[in-house]
Amino acid sequence: MRVGVPSQAPAGETRVALTPDVAGRLAARKLDVVVEAGAGERSHLSDAAFEKAGARAGSADEAWGSEIVAVVRAPSAEEIGRLSRGAVLIGFLNPLADAETARALASAGVTSFAMEAIPRITRAQSMDALSSQATVAGYLAVLLAAENLDRFFPMLTTAAGTIKPATVLVLGAGVAGLQAIATARRLGAVVTGYDVREAVREQVESLGARFLQLELEADAEGAGGYAKELGEEQQRRQQAAMAEAIGRFDVVIATAAVPGRRAPLLVTAAAVEGMKPGSVIVDLAAATGGNCELTEPGQTVERHDVTILGPLDLASEMPEHASQLYARNVQSLLELLVSDEGELVLNWEDEVLAGACITRDGEIVHEGAKQAAGAPAPG
User: Fold this and answer.
1) 202-215: per-residue pLDDT in tens?
2) At what angle do helices 129-148 and 319-337 cross, to 10 degrees?
3) pTM value surpassing 0.85
4) Which of 12, 268, 285, 357 has the fewest CB atoms within 10 Å, counting from its CB?
């Protein structure tokens, strides 16, 4: 059984789906691991390191033509055309928004597993690639904020006097938000966290941050622990209360997201206008519409003397460790797909495999992906 790892560098991807240590563990399970030559270069992983671990450096055709193909981002239509019929594809496939990819994979007869669709259950934590990449993004968001803020993060006592620490508000206490809180605290800022889910208050406070209470009289925790979308009136009240609070902070790091939906609008234009001159907003939700009304995806802009950053796919800015974490997620999923003898075993009674599968037998089988694609039910 061959596992292929193609390079996605031509599409701008800096990460690689497997790293040498993980490739070595898979080779020990009697798998033939083929990594396209140069696939790991942007993550500082050489072909020689892969070969030393027991993998092989091969051609793009060999990698894409493998029985199992592991990628980071969703493949293009041309790349899907290079997959063998009946092949297994693993990667971030954006099934709730990218209907064209789901349709193309179904038409190609590919059995696909989306890393972001893996159920949030205890036994699947080691496969949770959303969390691993969000950890990287939350860390880097704080560094971006510190770089763009023209003030110190920590309190400094000098002969010229004492400098007060920066105040940071983190919106959304998921994995990215909690990592941002922890990182900002390490840099010496006074940190406050906010989330519509009351259950995360304890996690925020355990990191030494305060919890911002807006008194919305609603707990928006949905399935799997994710936040769910608030009603229109609740959103309006949330925005008004948030606008009043935001003016007290030097930095706002926005990480709030609702799976399959536009990111909730938390920071209005009026709220930005009320911030102190020189303040900074880092909007990690830029790719799905932004938590800030004035965010421009992929751009850094200045509005009302406030710097607003809208980074896209921030985890790819730290490719070495992001690849390391992602590869371990992929390895854990592969261990469910492949027997100790190196044979493909697809147990559709397993809730992890059934939940993460997007296409099989020429059909879109994931409920959310079916709705996005307008596909009929299987059979």
Assistant:
1) 999 999 999 998 87
2) 170
3) yes
4) 12
